[in-house]
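Quick question: what would this complex look like in 3D?
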Amino acid sequence: MYYIGISAYYHESSVFLTDNEKTNCFLKEESFSRIKGDKNFPKRCLKFLIKKFDLKNENIHFISFYEKPFKSWWEIFYYSIKNPLKNKDFLIHHLKNFNNGSIFFYTDINKLINISRNKVIYSSHHLSHCLYGLSAVKNISEYVHITCDGVGEGETMAAYTIDNEYKIKKIWTNFYPNSIGLFYSTITDFLGFEINEGESKVMSLSSFGKPKYENQLKKIFNINDFKINMDYFEFHKNLSKSFSKKLCEMLGEPYLNINEETNFKKYADIASSAQLILEETMQNLIKKITKISGKKKIVLTGGVALNCKMIYNLSKLDIFEELVVPPSPGDSGSAIGAANFAYLNKNKNKTLDLNTIFLGPKKEIINEKKNKDNLFLKISSTDSFVSYAASKLIDGETIASYYGLTEVGPRSLGNTSIFCDAKNSDSVNNLNINLKKREHYQPLAPILLEEDFEKYFSINKNIQKNLEWMGVLCDANEELYKDYSSIIHIDGTCRTQIIKDKDTITYKILRELKKKGSDILVNTSFNISKDPVVFDLFDVYVNMKRLNIKFILMDDGLYQTKNI
Amino acid sequence: MFLIPKSNLKNFDPVRCCFVLNEFATAEFSSAVEMLFAAKNINDQKLSEGFIRHALDEYKHCTIFTNIKNKIILEYKINKKKLSFVPNHIYNKGYIYKDHFIFEKKKINNFAIFIGANEEIAEKKLITFANYLKKHKPFAFKEVEKILKDEERHAKYSLEFAKNNNGFLSYKIKVIRERILSFFRHIYANSLNKFSFIFNPILITILIIINLVTYFLNLKKNTSDDDVMKNIEPKSIT
Ligand SMILES: [Fe+2]
Ligand SMILES: [Fe+2]
Ligand SMILES: [Fe+2]
């Protein structure tokens, strides 16, 4: 019997299916549609699951949606309706969306699976974030669970405690429009980046600037009581931009071209100031919540938790014993939280026991074997294929990976990645600028064996756990500057991932690489910018051709693309 | 390209030109995605390979249009925010249907005619835009010429396949039908936002009524909850 969690309609749609025994399957709609950030009802994910697991009313405990659809729609509408004429564009759009949105979730589901109404249930937005966070820690009652995002069901921050009988208490909430997430995404918009996609660019850019606008920005977001000054924002009334004229009077012209040096410097200063406001807000939030709850260990979820620079800077302040951010803290990970809600709803004092961060399907489940034979040529099939691949990497080759279970979250953790030798600065630059078409101020991330970590990096113990899924930054040691300077960000940090599991191919490659003289690989997700990460073998083939990558490591060997 | 952007530009306006280039890039990306879907779902290896090659061409065309756009943006120092390609907008712009790919709704013989007829139409419209570029941005014309050659080949292959797999008369009828459908699809796509002048006043009236009702509403918000699971109604959407 399966539990199914679904997150959809607002951010990238996703589905999680589990029987809490052997089967876990996390899928994103964008993997099937090939349209990044696809937020439509995840029809293709569900069709895939129906086929693979023979889903029907009888073998499903619950299908659980990650939030209360009407509440979510209404809370935003309710704020803007106070001024119907001023906010009419936004409101009309919102009214029209009523029909296409999550309110008709049951109808959408029923088109695919004939399921009884009492098996379709609805969690709550921030509760789903919180319930997903449980999967990242043991002893959940020792932690306070903080969520922070743009907005969900009219809430923007929340804090929960959970006792050993799984009684969940919400101890504090902050409400829309007072949102540090929307503050940060408004600055993202102002600087000319797309909301939901450009926040990580703002974070990288912030390291190039100084917080010169700190005092001004503190007037528009109060870091002590978490209140926003709406005179500077228009996300409640304008569909095409989230900031008002007043913000332009304060910060100058928006959407400047940052390829010009003076604009770059100015925008880096604005980014740096916004980053500071975010960090100080989160610092105060953590102080407040640890005080109320009496707990010094924190699980942080919600889209804001993706800001790994913030986590890094918070770790230096000695305001918590431990801070854990699970691999997919944003709304798409909430499909897992929703499934957990269904499980808890059924079993009352038990939650899902998810032992791995790789909750996606195995590659064999995704693909038919004939496609591998049709599209790829095996060039090394003996046990030594890993060693052969490591030699290729040392020679400066870029190699893609496609093996094991698929990862959850926005970052590729080795199983669907592109690697190159971090010692080889030409390969690193080629990968970043030519292949991935990333901006010059966005650094690539290193990956290495756990045992080598301390030689090259330092990190505070209180955030160390997040290293397993690239969730935090750490400091580069002097040793790293000797041979691996091309992976170090301008501020001396790296978004490092460590590999622990000796049975994985990623571990074996790193071990072979070490024998050949290099300890660190660059690890970036296997996609082209604006495209989702590869999902099936067709995507692998097409993306290898587009990126001009010659070799691909799979579970059973090193392959090349055939010419078709 | 199944929905071809409007591109009847006359005098050179860099912003308008970049806008059209961005629309073309979006249309190319959309047809790449359609082709890739067909490649994955057809039960014939040779045809599947053909669709993969077609998808690769369309992705390449998307890159070509994007690169030209980026060069013009740099040259004229244009604000690029409104001109950036956001994959998720493909649906709202009508380049891809929200609930299905075209391959899901057509048999392979009809799908081939669909591609062939639409690639021909795309090619014709692209020639007009290419000539505009030839006059104002010769560097771009050379690149677009490469695309034109590909589109010509796509149309030829598809129509040849369709000719061999449909009877002569049925082939002719289907091609004409696709041309007519394409014509209406473009009219529909271009008029999507044009009816708002009728509906908006009605919607605004509804908004004012809701405003009056909510004026008397005083919704209380709880900042805390002692037993979240007990107090949540799982079946409720509110
Ligand atoms: Fe959220
Ligand atoms: Fe094309
Ligand atoms: Fe084409």
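Answer marked as accepted. The mean pLDDT of chain B is 87.
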